[in-house]
Amino acid sequence: MFMPNKEGLLSDTKCIMGGGVLPLVIASVGVLLLFQILLRLRRGASVQGAVVVITGASSGLGRECARVFHAAGARLVLCGRDAARLQEVVQELGGNSADGQRQTFAPSTIVFDLARADSVGKAAEEILKCHGHVDVLINNAGISYRGNILDTHMTVQRDVMETNYFGPISLTQALLPSMVQRCSGHIVVISSVQGKIAIPYRSAYAASKHATQAYFDCLRAEMGHLGIPVTVISPGYIRTNLSVNAMTGDGSTYGVVDKTTASGWDPKVVARAVLKAVRLKSKDVVLAGPQPTVAVYLRTLWPALFFKLMASRARKEQRHKDE
Ligand SMILES: NC(=O)C1=CN([C@@H]2O[C@H](COP(=O)(O)OP(=O)(O)OC[C@H]3O[C@@H](n4cnc5c(N)ncnc54)[C@H](OP(=O)(O)O)[C@@H]3O)[C@@H](O)[C@H]2O)C=CC1
Ligand SMILES: CCCCCCCCCCCCCCCC(=O)OCC(=O)COP(=O)(O)O
Fold first, then answer.
1. Contact indicator for 288, 235 with CB cutoff of 8 Å
2. Using a 6 Å CB cutoff, which residues line ligand 1?
3. From ligand 1's centre to the CA of 277, what distance in Å?
4. Catalytic amino acids?
5. Coil, strand, or helix at residue 44?
6. In 3D, which of 79, 89, 91, 86 has the Cα closest to residue 52?
7. Using CA positions, which residue lies closest to atom 48 of ligand 1?
8. PROSITE patterns under this entry (predicted)?
9. Which residues of 91-115 are buried (b: 16+ CB within 10 A; e: fewer)?
């Protein structure tokens, strides 16, 4: 009968380490490193010469996206409600040029209000008339909100939904048939971490971003067989004017730079991540620090704890307001 003794086992282990396992470990680490290097080198599709429509291009993240996509050689169509501010962006980016490495193109602009369904349809027609097609639509424009539900007018709930949800989906649906016809195109939407978790005193905003996430998830599934990618990007706080421009419960403008916004991510960093997501045709990207990222997982994996944390956050904010 074979009775393995301590010594025998030890010598067997030595034999495995010396003869088989160590080279295997080294080979695996090597493969992993190579994989990491390949991932870093993977640049994905180029946007050189691509017609890229960016909504909300007059400020914040949209403006930075305009800079980044322009430098990458895209033919930009910049959208916003304020013609003068859009022209400022055009002036800054400059005209057509080629530096031997990359050709860049003078952007065009189109002025319309996303909250007005008629103007969205007309804008889409004009874009197609001028450029023939759209390669990438970046639904970036949006507005935030501050208020408690009890004091918020229904008109405000609807207005935020018009700008953040119905506007982007109207533009998408108006441009989609031409993409389907060509079996080519890419739809991107800038949602928010608040499209995945709802935090107190943001009902209108969080609801509009949750609706956005759901609609574009459906669209991705429906466009899959046509090869039209759909990318939902969910940033955490970004240093822009979003909180300043936010609506309050009575429809007035909030007008305050919140600490969370002021200490948010640099919009340049977020814009570069948007370009990367477009090149790699990513499906769903969260661009946030550890706290919001953990919160997103907590909402799914341990909802009871997440709801407790949100209720305590609401109480704290209410106390702070009462003081
Ligand atoms: N800043 C942040 O912390 C975060 C922002 N986001 C999202 O990023 C996106 C960009 O916001 P951000 O750059 O931060 O904010 P800004 O307020 O700086 O920019 C918002 C842009 O949206 C445009 N816009 C607003 N309402 C309308 C409308 N009715 N019709 C057409 N355009 C409109 C504005 O253009 P104009 O006023 O000239 O018409 C402006 O260019 C938004 O979707 C926002 O929800 C997501 C997560 C975090
Ligand atoms: C590391 C341990 C963390 C434990 C997790 C506890 C949960 C903490 C809750 C964190 C909530 C994060 C909210 C983030 C919200 C956000 O980033 O929103 C982005 C925006 O769209 C900002 O718009 P706003 O108008 O609200 O400024």
1. yes
2. 55-56, 58-62, 80-82, 85, 113-115, 140-143, 163, 190, 192, 235, 237-238, 240-242, 245, 261, 264
3. 19
4. 205
5. coil
6. 79
7. 237
8. ADH_SHORT
9. eebeeeeeeeeeebbebbbbbbbbb
Query: Which residue's alpha carbon is nearest to atom 3 within ligand 2?
Result: 291
| End-to-end Cα separation, the chain, in angstroms | 82
> Is residue 124 classed as helix, strand or coil in its secondary structure?
helix
User: Measuring CA to CA, which residue among 14, 5, 61 is closest to residue 238?
Assistant: 61
Nearest Cα neighbor of 77 from 125, 129, 134, 142 is 134
Nearest CA to 273 out of 288, 261, 257, 258 is that of: 288
Q: What is the pLDDT of residue 3?
A: 39
| CA 198 to ligand 2 centroid distance, Å | 9
In the 8-state DSSP scheme, what is residue 190? E
Looking at residue 41, its pLDDT comes to 58
Tell me the ipTM for this assembly: 0.98
The distance from CA 22 to its chain's CA centroid, rounded to whole angstroms, is 43
Residue nearest to atom 25 of ligand 2 (CA): 144
Mutate to test the pocket of ligand 2, among 240, 294, 296, 317 (most ligand atoms within 8 A of CB): 294
Distance 140 CA to ligand 2 centre (A): 19
Q: Based on the number of CB atoms within 10 Å of its own CB, is 162 exposed (0-12), middle (13-18) or buried (19 or more)? A: middle
Length of the chain: 323
Q: What is the pLDDT of residue 105?
A: 98
Q: In terms of pLDDT, which residue wins out, 227 or 39?
A: 227
- Report the predicted TM-score, pTM, of the whole model to 2 decimal places: 0.90
Residue pair 275/261 in contact (Cβ under 8 Å)? The answer is: no
Nearest atom in ligand 1 to the alpha carbon of residue 193 is 47
- For helices 167-182 and 117-131, the axis angle rounded to 10 degrees is 30
> Which ligand places an atom closest to the C-alpha of 89?
1
| Of 139, 141, 62, residue with least CA distance to 107 | 62
Q: What pLDDT, on a 0 to 100 scale, did the predictor assign at position 43?
A: 66
**pLDDT on residue 313:** 97
Q: For the chain, state the CA radius of gyration.
A: 25
